[in-house]
Specification:
- It is a single chain.
- This protein is an alpha+beta fold.
- The protein folds into three domains: 1-62, no CATH class; 64-106, no CATH class; 112-223, no CATH class.
- The chain has five helices and ten strands.
- The chain has helices at 24-36, 41-55, 83-87, 97-106, 112-119; strands at 70-71, 76-77, 132-136, 143-146, 157-163, 168-174, 186-187, 190-194, 196-199, 218-223.
- The strands form four sheets. The protein has a four-stranded mixed beta sheet with strand order 3-5-6-10. A two-stranded antiparallel sheet has the order 1-2.
- Strand 7 and strand 8 (190-194) form a beta hairpin.
């Protein structure tokens, strides 16, 4: 017989662990996308399972607005189209050419892996470095947001900012020892992570938290 004092909250819900094997390229792409929205793979998996339980099905995984399908309710088209074919439709195309081009670009999501390959022509070393931070403009605020580990300062650090509005990539090369740990503000909940919030549309590329300007480290820019 066992005596259990439940007021001490010593009873925990049983947890299950599982492992999944996926293609390395799929894994890298997924990690890039999750990093872009501030999630890790474990958190995303738990969120997906919670959604599965709430919906009692997998309908949430299926897009309800299928590209190219006509919707009677709003009399519009959702386009995921070949630009050349769509222009031949003439009056059947909803919106002008700029709208179509913008819609086509919207489905071309930029990730860290894609950005690295865009820069590989001029600088192949970056492809083999694990010391790369990729940050996109925050959807809800005017800054690029990332939380790199403080260890990035211990060697050459590659920082890529993604301006998805103007479709520009900025590559900064911060040489080892150019900046120190004391130059930055760390996350309140984890002192090993830098709280990086670089102002958007700012030619000085200044971090709002630490006021460090990255302009002098700008090495390359490219359009996509």
């Amino acid at each position: 017989m066992y005596n259990i004092d439940i007021t001490k909250k010593e009873i925990k819900i049983m947890e299950k662990q599982f492992s999944v094997t996926i293609n390395e390229n799929d894994y890298n792409e997924a990690m890039d996308i999750l990093e872009d929205v501030g999630l890790d793979l474990v958190s995303f998996t738990k969120m997906a399972i919670k959604k599965l339980l709430k919906e009692e099905g997998i309908d949430f995984l299926v897009k309800k607005d299928i590209p190219g399908r006509h919707h009677e309710k709003d009399k519009t088209y959702k386009w995921n189209i070949n630009l050349g074919d769509s222009l031949k439709k003439g009056a059947d195309v909803i919106g002008d050419v700029n709208d179509i081009i913008s819609n086509v670009f919207d489905v071309m999501k930029m990730t860290k892996t894609k950005a690295l390959h865009l820069f590989k022509v001029d600088d192949t070393d970056i492809l083999f470095s694990k010391n790369v931070t990729f940050a996109s403009k925050n959807q809800a605020a005017d800054h690029y947001w990332a939380n790199p580990n403080i260890d990035v300062l211990e060697e050459d650090w590659y920082l890529i900012l993604n301006d998805q509005i103007n479709r520009h990539l900025f590559l900064f090369v911060i040489a080892e020892d150019s900046l120190t740990e004391s130059d930055f503000v760390k996350r309140a909940d984890n002192e090993n992570l830098i709280d990086l919030q670089i102002a958007y549309d700012d030619p000085t590329f200044t971090d709002k938290r630490s006021h460090v300007s990255f302009a002098k480290f700008l090495a390359k820019t490219t359009k996509y």
